[in-house]
Amino acid sequence: MHKKMLVFLLSAALLNCAKESKPDVAYMVSPLFENSAPKLLVQMRFAADSSGKTILEFNDQVWGEKNLHDVVESTKLLNAIGEIEQNRDSGWFLIKHPKDLDSIRFEYVLKQDFDHPISTREVYRPIIQPAYFHVFSHNLFMVPKMEKDTVDISISWRGFSEKDVIHNSFGSQQREQLLENVLWEEFGNAIFVGGDFRVHKDEIKGNAISLATRGEWIPFQEDSVMHVLKQTLQCQRDFWNDHSQEYFTVTMQPFPQENGSSFQGTGLTNSFATSISNNEFADIEQLVYLFNHELMHNWIGHTIKNDNEEEQYWFSEGFTEYYAFKNIAKNNINGLGASYFIDSMNKTIRNLFSSPVFEAPNSEINYDNFWGNREYSKLPYYRGALFAFILDQKIQKQTDNRQSLDDVMRQILKDATKKGQKLTHDYFLQVMGKYLGKDFNTFFEIHIVQGRPLPLADFFDELGLDFERETQLFEMGFELSDDRKEVVSVIKGSNAEKAGLIAGDRLYSRSIHYGNVAKPIELGVLRNGNEIDISFYPVKTALVPTLLNSPKNQSLLMP
């Protein structure tokens, strides 16, 4: 009886809302508790297709998540007699209804489809708890299939208590939202949170910024996080001369993790959503990097688009990486300056030359390799960041510090904004030719297209930088099976072999800090029914030059 009355009231409210604003789609979201389980009831109203068949899109696989239809507990057509068909492969729900039906009122219930504590594996799935919810738009809203790209959408948040926060990519604490002329793509790329979140608000040149978070944080204070966020956005917007974004928010969700730190984040419409391991292994410096890299994608990757995604990842990921380091150091974000910049570049050098695929041609950074192989997924970050660093220094040297790579980046943004120019190799060569001449074409072909190592020692000598010719590189020393539970092979002469690890060992525990030579790899090994603890430092010495973190170098690189 209670639920029937609730549905009636919600339906009436939805109808009134639709009449007042006349949106293309009207949603109403309400909390629902059934069998002590928290859920979300979503009702929607939209135009019916004259064919008598209307499709609601709701992907079963998104962002690597599978079986997302499992979160839909029930569906119901409210204002007509009809049938509802579900198609996981195509990612939609089909409503069969009378052909003379003008509009459809439809409801469905969303649930959290796992019972165990949240981990890195679940942060992109709908999280619906008694105290809060954290759901991405494509997991929350079914979308009627339409021919037009932009729509008006209303969202009513009903039945939540006064103390419950309602916060999302389109506004904060708005129980009635009207999104006018919004792209479907933008609406589907958003975050919606509610419940016991806390919202910290500020502004930059009259534009609203906010941080929405919850829980009791162990590694940092929320005020410190908000300070880093504001510093980052202020400096990035100043760099691009772009203060056009009227609203921007970051959501920060904690999750438990015993060992090591983990940061998950994704850039969205007007927002960035991150989930972070809440333990003593996470720290504010990691968050400084995360914000500066990911929020730089508001321009590199969002406004400046790759013509062929993976082919230009050396730019969209590598140059973003470099400008994260540079932006932090140049603006002393959270007290990190020139020393941080040199340390970051040295770490990039070590990571690049430690990679087993560091000489792979750019053509091998393709969809399958990038998304299916950890080594390939990191390669464009390292290679592109180091390439950007060299170009920046070359332009400054050639122009007596009158110009830098900054000027190149602003020109690329201008062309992307005014001409719709995408980042292609030919276009990049054309822009760079104005600064470094035609010889740059050969340099680009050798070190980006072919992937041959950059001549770092010669370059450091040319700039008068102090450096060491040898360094310690990360070498894990062994290869794991696809399920990461068995040692497939061990590199001869490596520290892993010296510590006693052999092919065929099964792992029941592991602690690996990838790229970090200062922390030991610790493995729990099962061999012949016995448990063995193996620990070693994943390091080898190689002829790879790295910069000295000296006052002279700091002055030359960050004047």
Describe what this molecule looks like in 3D.
One of its GO terms (molecular function) is zinc ion binding. This is Peptidase M1 membrane alanine aminopeptidase domain-containing protein. A hairpin with a 4-residue loop joins strand 5 and strand 6. This protein has a 6-stranded mixed β-sheet with strand order 4-7-2-1-11-14. Helix content is 33%, strand content 29%. The protein folds into 4 domains: 195 residues, Immunoglobulin-like, CATH 2.60.40.3650; 82 residues; 157 residues, Neutral Protease, domain 2; 72 residues, Pdz3 Domain, CATH 2.30.42. The protein has 559 residues and is of the alpha+beta class. The N terminus is likely disordered. 35% of the residues are buried. The chain is globular, with a radius of gyration of 26 Å.
Summarize this structure briefly.
This protein is α+β, with helices and mostly antiparallel strands and 559 residues long. The strands form 8 sheets. It has a 6-stranded mixed beta sheet. The chain has a 5-stranded antiparallel beta sheet with strand order 8-9-15-12-13. A 5-stranded mixed beta sheet has the order 16-17-18-20-19, with helices on one face.
